[in-house]
Structure formats: C-alpha cells, structure tokens
Design goal:
Blueprint: H1 8-17, H2 23-32, H3 44-56, E1 61-65, H4 71-77, E2 85-90, H5 96-105, E3 112-116, H6 119-128, E4 133-138, H7 145-154, E5 156-165, H8 181-194, E6 199-204, E7 210-215
Parallel strand pairs: 1-2, 1-4, 2-3, 4-5
Antiparallel strand pairs: 5-7, 6-7
The structure holds S-adenosylmethionine.
S-adenosylmethionine binds at residues 40-42, 66-69, 71-72, 89-92, 118-119, 139-141.
C-alpha cells in the first residue's frame, strides 16, 4: 500500500521541518561530505530519530558499532540521560580528530568514548566482561552484521533496543539472488530478525533503511 511516494523534494521538506540539526552537527556533516566515502554517513532524519529513541528510552548506556567521523555518535550522545555515556567502535582512527573536535564543541567529549579496534574483538570482550547497554547502533562492516546482531543481543538489557542501518542496501536487498555476499548477509539477517521471537521489531524505510529491534524480557 503506497500512501505518499517519498520524492527527494519531500525528503528535503522533512529534513528542513522535521529535524533540529545543531550548527555543530551540521558542521560535522558538511566536513564529512568533503570525504570520498561520505555516503557512509547517516542522514539528519535518521540522526534526529536516533536522538529521540535515546530520549524516549531514557538511555544511559549506548554502544555504537561504526564511528566513522562521529556524526551518529554525536546525535545519539545528545539524547543520553544526565548520567549517560556512549562507547563508539571503529577499526580506524583516521577521522577521530575531526570527530573529537565536534564532540568537544558540543561539550559531549566526556560522555563519548571511542575504542579503536576490530568491533568483533571489542564485542567479545564486552560479552566476557558482562557489559550491558540500553541501545546498540549497528553501522559497521555489513558482512559481519549477523555476528554484530547476535553479540549485541547478549549485551543488551531486557527492553533495550538494537538499531541497524543500511538494511535496504540502496535497494539491493530486492534482488532474488544478489551477487554480493554482504547483500546476501543483509537479506538473511532481515529474514532472521523478522522471525526472531527474542525481539519485537520494525523495519523503517528512512535513509538506507533502519531496523529497530527491542529485546523481549528473558524469562
Ligand atoms: C558506515 S560507517 C559509520 C558511519 C557512522 N555511524 C555515522 O553515520 O556517522 C562504518 C564504519 O565502520 C568501520 N568499520 C568497518 N569494519 C569494522 C570493524 N570490523 N570493526 C570496527 N569498525 C569497522 C569503518 O571504518 C567505518 O568508519
């Protein structure tokens, strides 16, 4: 059922009236847009949505898998409660300076802790050390999304939420037999989450597709 076809003009309308991107966030996004791989960035609508989710759930512990230039981390951190903190993981520190400059400008640098290492290693350490989070945002290596999802469920509080970006992979998930292995992985994960009775879920067609999965209470 198609209600309103979402044209680029309507997206621009939503971005202009439906988000409150601060000057600092806009500056970080504009700096990031100068990079060749800037398409990795979430959109302002997704960012505003992430912040609201953090606020609605009164999140105090957030984990992000995939920091890049720290734009989504800044949106999420701005929704943390008074005592909250966010850990963001990336395999590379290439953009850490740019990220940190904007976290400092927003006075959120003390709430954001980057860990530069392969996410799979850090997640294993968190599982071993029994870390727990209220929100986990997954936005790193698409080939590893199933592992990230399964690891995240182990370190998520009951009632906590996992948010996954790029679940539509620019429309490539519609292919019956995709050539690229990471698209196959995403299709497999989308099916897995739909049928996963450990969570309640919704897949939203905003940005490149966001799935929200809320962990049910463990019995
Ligand atoms: C899509 S970008 C993240 C964008 C960011 N969430 C935002 O919107 O502001 C993905 C990031 O994941 C990182 N990454 C890729 N493989 C990784 C791995 N195995 N462990 C940790 N980070 C990884 C990349 O270096 C890249 O910066």
């Amino acid at each position: 059922m198609l209600k309103t076809p979402i044209t680029p003009e309507l997206i621009a309308y939503c971005e202009s009236l439906g988000t409150r991107e601060s000057d600092i966030l806009a500056s970080l996004r504009n700096e990031t847009l100068k990079l060749s791989n800037s398409q990795m960035l979430i959109t302002p609508i997704q960012g505003a949505f992430l912040k609201l989710l953090a606020q609605i759930t009164n999140a105090s512990k957030i984990l992000e898998i995939g920091m890049f230039t720290g734009y989504s981390a800044l949106w999420l951190a701005s929704g943390l409660n008074e005592f909250g903190s966010l850990i963001t993981l990336d395999i590379s520190d290439k953009h850490l300076e740019l990220a940190n400059k904007h976290w400092v400008a927003a006075n959120l640098q003390d709430k954001i802790k980057p860990i530069i290492a392969p996410a799979e290693e850090t997640l294993k350490a968190f599982i071993d050390d029994n870390f727990k989070f209220d929100i986990i945002f997954i936005d790193a290596n698409k080939s590893q999304y199933i592992e990230y999802y399964e690891s995240s469920l182990k370190i998520l509080n009951d009632g906590g939420i996992i948010i996954l970006d790029n679940v539509l992979m620019y429309g490539q998930v519609l292919a019956e037999s995709p050539q690229k292995n990471f698209v196959k992985t995403l299709k497999q994960l989308n099916e897995l989450i739909k049928n996963d009775n450990r969570v309640d879920m919704v897949m939203l067609p905003i940005g490149d597709g966001l799935t929200i999965a809320r962990k049910r209470d463990t019995q």
